[in-house]
Amino acid sequence: MQIDVKTILFEGALHRLRELSDANHLIVQNEQSLVAVAWPELQKTRDGLTVVLGPQGLGKVVATKVSVDNAWIVEPKSQRVLMAREGEIEFVDPSGRDKLQRVTVAGLPSGSFAAALDSAGQHLLLVVMRAVNMDFAEYGIVVITLSDGQLQRELTIRSNADLELHWDETFRTWVICDTSNATVWRWDGAKLSTKLASALTDTVYSATLVVGDDGAIVTALVTQGAGATGLISGRAEQDRVDWKESVTLHGPSVLVTRRHPKLAVWACLAQEGKVQQIQIRDAAGKVLGEANIRPPAHVSDLLWSASTPERVWAFGVHSLAAATLNQ
Fold first, then answer.
1. How many CA atoms lie within 13 A of 43 on its CB side?
2. For the whole model, what pTM was predicted?
């Protein structure tokens, strides 16, 4: 497999990235704005040049005064952006055809950090701040009924790390994963959540969650007995995580890994010294393809394209890399 990587450097901080209708239409959170921008326009940027987004540069600003603790998500059917602000949810149409709409949500705090919709687009799950201590913050979960703004708090899920959220249509529940230790819960938005049983004994240093054709799959990077890095994945069943055997990842240290929603392949972000690399690995941990990210670009997370299996996005504070996979 050959991987072609195009990197873009941004003048402002890049906080989040999502696709709109396809991999050529993006919406990015740049500084305190949401900007809709076409990838083909970004792709024309010469290597080494810095891109400015917004009125003085590329793309169209669709929302302003967007903080890092304003969670947002693209609704697949309408292509509207749903964004959480203190006390309300905004519905933003990036095309500009529909006016900004708001739903008042009593009790919704100012800080929200991740979002997921159910399959009908009627309920929005959010990660919110439970408490702030001197040394750490504690996060929890709420669900909002979008038709009337009713908020329901989940009472048992607590984490000091990032939580990843997905809707699982098979069991008609949300799946919530603690990215620091691969703890997984299911919640239907009404009853008490269920913490899934897990026989994982290795030390976890990173975990991610995806829901796709094979169900809800958790992937964890673990430290194996000899100190090697291992990858282990498991299917989140109704009451447990069914883990497979871990595989050893040889080569540069892998920092982040994300499974494809439909295929048993993993995109990995690896680093050795100052050199970062995007890898594609199979279920046995074998490297199918790899490509370096050119400095000074530096990335910290990965995102599979929702519209094509040939694209992986890698992004960091001032960098975006598009990895195109050629079989």
1. 12
2. 0.94
